[in-house]
Fold this protein.
Amino acid sequence: VVRRIEELGFRPHLLSEGGRTVIGFMGDETKSMQSTFAAMSGVESVVMSRKPYRVACREFKAEGTIIRVGDIEIGANRVILMAGPCAVESRSMLMEVAHAVKEAGAKILRGGAYKPRTSPYSFKGLREKGLEILAEAREKTGLAIITEAMSIQDVKLVSQYADILQIGARNMQNFALLEEAGNIKKPVLLKRGMMATLEELLMAAEYILSNGNQQVMLCERGIRTFERYTRNTLDIVSVPLLKDLTHLPVIVDPSHGTGVRGLVKPASRAAVAAGADGLLIEVHPNPDEALSDGPQSLCPEDFRNLVDEVKKIARAVGREI
Amino acid sequence: VVRRIEELGFRPHLLSEGGRTVIGFMGDETKSMQSTFAAMSGVESVVMSRKPYRVACREFKAEGTIIRVGDIEIGANRVILMAGPCAVESRSMLMEVAHAVKEAGAKILRGGAYKPRTSPYSFKGLREKGLEILAEAREKTGLAIITEAMSIQDVKLVSQYADILQIGARNMQNFALLEEAGNIKKPVLLKRGMMATLEELLMAAEYILSNGNQQVMLCERGIRTFERYTRNTLDIVSVPLLKDLTHLPVIVDPSHGTGVRGLVKPASRAAVAAGADGLLIEVHPNPDEALSDGPQSLCPEDFRNLVDEVKKIARAVGREI
Amino acid sequence: VVRRIEELGFRPHLLSEGGRTVIGFMGDETKSMQSTFAAMSGVESVVMSRKPYRVACREFKAEGTIIRVGDIEIGANRVILMAGPCAVESRSMLMEVAHAVKEAGAKILRGGAYKPRTSPYSFKGLREKGLEILAEAREKTGLAIITEAMSIQDVKLVSQYADILQIGARNMQNFALLEEAGNIKKPVLLKRGMMATLEELLMAAEYILSNGNQQVMLCERGIRTFERYTRNTLDIVSVPLLKDLTHLPVIVDPSHGTGVRGLVKPASRAAVAAGADGLLIEVHPNPDEALSDGPQSLCPEDFRNLVDEVKKIARAVGREI
Amino acid sequence: VVRRIEELGFRPHLLSEGGRTVIGFMGDETKSMQSTFAAMSGVESVVMSRKPYRVACREFKAEGTIIRVGDIEIGANRVILMAGPCAVESRSMLMEVAHAVKEAGAKILRGGAYKPRTSPYSFKGLREKGLEILAEAREKTGLAIITEAMSIQDVKLVSQYADILQIGARNMQNFALLEEAGNIKKPVLLKRGMMATLEELLMAAEYILSNGNQQVMLCERGIRTFERYTRNTLDIVSVPLLKDLTHLPVIVDPSHGTGVRGLVKPASRAAVAAGADGLLIEVHPNPDEALSDGPQSLCPEDFRNLVDEVKKIARAVGREI
């Protein structure tokens, strides 16, 4: 089948699961082509999709994708908590947060080593030193690590240290970076651009998927609106909508999504009630002294309270934390 | 105190509750004025607010406002369900829906008699005939009635029939209508404009409050964004934010807020998880034949399922339906 | 023909010009209906439009509508300048501005007697007193008068004094007000809502047109965007687009459209270069002391300079001031 | 002075012009620091800026920056026309367009060799082959070349061929790419992001400037709004606003800015009337067969008409083409 697709001048994408192989490609949507393939031996069915994101869409793969990081399953019944500071500021600070969030129930530690900043004069992160500290925190706590790569240069290095590679909102349409993320073997968390439509987000995911990396999760982190009381408007309804459009897991970031500490807890409850597969939350031992994003960071105690509340909601929708 | 405020050339707003009277007015925020009033007998405290919505803000009144409609309390522990068709299309259809939503747990029946329509050529509602049908449904079912007034001409008539007067999103800054709504004795549900900030919504509420009607509830019904899969983007985080900024109850309309039937249920769960005091939901006996808003209306059975799911969430946040 | 349309249950709109009569109505777009009318004697042609704004669209009337106010023609070759203060603050101030703008080349005097304000506590205009002052200024200077009606209650009174009735941006979808404006015999300037699409603007115009008033001009006054340096983003390209979609004249308001005094002149040049039929500009004898919109008002001298510059642009596009 | 700045722990940016040297750096804005430097010999004045874009702002450099490409001056009196196809599709097609736009008055040839595409399945350009064709066109016609680099990998190669390196709207906050563009010796045209504020655009320019490349021009190319008749809303008033905020030249792209062929001409007139230093226009020998952006491309004859009209506007504002 693959050879035939290539003969026709198209590029096939393979996806194996449970003894069945799904082969996707973008071609002419003619009836004759459909019957050509339907008639080939070993072909169970031919599905034609009108969605421009061929591999990301539910029609391509009906069951939800589950991404495994060690024994953590993202996209399964358990809602996964990812927490930690916006930026890795120092070894001692990261260790303190790591132990606190682990104890509270987080499975994955977040922390920026490379920080995208609007101003060239702002703190840009500890870079490789930050990655080393993250790796040490993983060793000490057993938490998995998620951290951002900002450019194609960093992808290789970051993916050596990280368990999940994050692509930030400003880079959602950095196509060279997306392609590079498609070449690695690690899961990728792709953040929605600040003003991107869901179709654009799915097309960005398609860049990674079509390059060969099937382990993609999407992250709603708020869009820009006219509201001035909040930093962004968290689009919570995007969660059930994305779950309908795509088989990929959907994570919500209520910290960037609101930009206001007091709103992180109710936004987290709402996100889980809406069906989110995970939460990405900024926690800092001393939010008022954070080098970046202090106003939206929780202290460890607030995070523990959040976990308690979110657990109740998870149970109410038949899931667990 | 009131006389002194008037002598100074300002207009006082009185609000009595539990034996205490709050008097608000907009004046110069000078220290001397503060001490003038603080020294008067019978004055417990003088609060200065920087918010431009003087009467609507939490600083003016710390406890949440509870609006009573018969024995229904809006803004108290119970999450209030308001449900019914977009437009009152006929007597038989409304009766059918009214019985169905009552049985499922709704306390208030919604239904448009006057319909604002983008096109002058669209169905504009049954008008007074629609109001009569609504009143009959109230009599038959015991449900309270909420319906919209579109212009100052209609306010008097609509408020004779309705238990709650609705002001629609397109009229959020129709200041003449807001002032008229401030003159009636019935509760008002004020919908957020499609592209209004929360401050603009609160300033619109202030028009009603400062005209003498303290029974105002706010309604989040989705804002316009660049997303094309949904009709609007429901700003669920506005719920906890509004609850923080104002003492007024906050209702969520997930039907207009999403415009997509399949999203009404998860959006409702999220709204209650975020702290909404009520839900306003479109239910139609046969959504595919609705004269307006069919694609976002639920059939009665879907509504019953929604109530079941929302009940679990309400319990998880310590409330009931 | 009219009788036949009515027999079919539709509502005809008549428009006579140059001995020819155009009859518009909204009906089923079936072939049979088209041939029914095409066959009737006296019918030159039957045009079917897919645009939801049947009467406003170019297909309905190919030549541009010219609105006559005394000997002023709006929509013809001459670019019409409308200028004056945001609000009529006093008799002396209005007379001063009226003489100054007349001398500089304005044909129409603007000035608000009824002011829509976001806050119920802001100055709301001199109301009927303001209308009287405007009428006096007309008598003294020969300028025509444009002023706003904010509610259906005011339309009758305002249209007794004004030569052109203005409907403000916040009332663009106040359908009761639009219908009332359709009942008067005076020209109407309809401002685009702050976040309205052009189709919504044209549908709002359709409310007035379909109610019987054909003298409608549209006004671009800036839309809300994420930009914070300006009050609004003036959508200058809407001018040629509207001129293509509709036969109605198009006016530009660079004062509200930018909110910044220093940008009014370049924005005016651009608007005329793009094909605007007129400009609506705020001029105040002492902008820094204006009761409203001071930061965007020009002093009379700046307005004279603006007229000089705009004249050169008008000539470059084959028009005059 | 430079040494002293470095001793204080800051990073100085030097800019020499006309025998005077401007030294910028980001430091504490204390009075004591101001007097420290004011007292040093050879220091004419110390300017403190509150703008976060220290080097880009007008306070840093009062005279407009003029960028020289051969004998072309961008930012001087002459309005510079840059024209050509969206993508370099073939050698013969590019030569045909190049000769046509040169004859009509263009000074610079545009053409994409690397194309950013929302879908991974769309045509991505001829890449290095495209660059070679562009270089050949320059040799044959004498036109300078502007073309886009999409990733840090391409910058070196693209800047070997191009006279001006373009950074696209989707990459406006690709900070690694901006830094790389700051390292080259070629002028850079930086396009405004589809939903970026002007401050964000200027901060992105600051990344390039603060890295050492002072030859930056900004390009307004339309922002995303709710309008559906156009692809983008061209923010023409951003031109005089940017000219006020920064010393950098400002170019307008009316092709992407509107997305509609019939609007490119009036938008170009408006842009020049507003003060644009140049226009970037898509021209294709056969727009209806273009591999990308056909609906917004002009045929050579339309482009000649556009130049004629724009010349008249340029003269009306005291400039030439």
In short: The mean pLDDT of chain C is 91.
